[in-house]
Amino acid sequence: MEKIFNMLKSCKIISSAVTVSKRHVYATVLLTCVFNLSSYWSVITFASEEIQVTSDNIIDYEFDYANPRFAWTDFTDGGKLWIGYIDPQTGEFLPPDGKALLVDTDTIYQGNGPEWAATSQGPRLVYNKKLQDLRVGLAQATEISNSWIVDFLHKSKKRLNPLASLNLEDRNPLIFYLLRIGNNQHILAWRVLDYAITEETIPMSLGATGGRWVPDRRALVFSATLDNGGRQAFLYDCNTEETEQLTFDSGRKQTVFMWKAPEFNDEYIFFASVKMNNFSVIRVYNKTINQDGVEEWNVFKTISPPSTGIYFWSPEPFVHNGKSYISFVASTSPNHLASDVPTQIWLADIVPAGGFVKNLTTDPNKLRIDPEVFVTDQGPYIYYNREIPGTDTDPRIKEGIYRVDTGLGP
Predict the structure, then answer these.
(1) Distances in Å between the alpha carbon of 165 and those of 98, 177, 216?
(2) CATH code at 42?
(3) CA neighbor of 389 nearest in space, from 344, 343, 345
(4) Are 203 and 252 in contact (CB under 8 A)?
(5) 248 in a domain, yes or no?
(6) Beta-ladder partners of 225
(7) Which of 198, 207, 247, 245 is nearest to 225 (CA)?
(8) Domain annotation covers residue 410
(9) Domain membership flag for residue 287
């Protein structure tokens, strides 16, 4: 009880929320009570065998969660875009090399591979492609009667890494992307996928990273740098064209995800990965209404490492059997691109007090990157690329894609 009492005494006002639109700026006072609950759980190792799915070098693959398949680009073979399939019972790739169906032949990797677009007319893929003048632009592939039709998107030069909205009922899906503005800088912009004339830029998104669509909303979250050098999380609403600053607390916000959490009656919550001085945390926030009737975002859980010197990369949420979980990479390097240190795959729940943080991988000498969750008939598996880390004298050795069981069951 004494620990809980001391934790409650640390509750404090952090700052005010600021909402920005193209026309006006207004502020709403928010109270944020930050609890560090990391002391109420320990990191445990879950005994689960790492299974090699393929030895082929398939990178930056993207699962189609409505169907047992994935899309990826073979950048060692001219940028060919392939679709592979997954056996939902075993979790195996079919075929193992992921080359079941060729969709396109000259895509270009700009830091992100192809992405699925959910629409009421069926699935599409969006990605970067060589335009007719050989410059980089946006393209889409549409599935029609088991065939894929490729189209360039109009007025798409200098636009990179498209990501499509997540609304299955939407007849006019949206995409957002990085828009180059010169001097190696970019901002975020969005448009209706099929209509270039609808393009709008997003306020306060200079140098933004970690952008993700909010499921079932025409809105996205991202992190960006403030004028004072701090980095915080934001939400942009495409309908109102307003940008809301979500966080004001300490640390540099990086990846941000917002989703509907069954634990909160399917209300929206979000997390932000936060880089501190010499470690990372993941803070999970929910919106409440205080006694004055003012909405506020509160940190209700902080996922912390067991010691300093550990950093969290590539976090993503997923929901299984009515509960929310977050998978992520744990590394000893503050550089997410480091290839000379081993990493582990971790899993955490979002239970406010208690809960668990699991280390799902046991071999301490492997580099694991880009984890993706796919729910099989046996339950959620986490897939990732695995390598032997490089050294000053030896290059890293790619081992293909592995998977590990989350232990959450069917």
Answers:
(1) 25, 11, 8
(2) 2.130.10.10
(3) 343
(4) no
(5) yes
(6) 231
(7) 207
(8) no
(9) yes
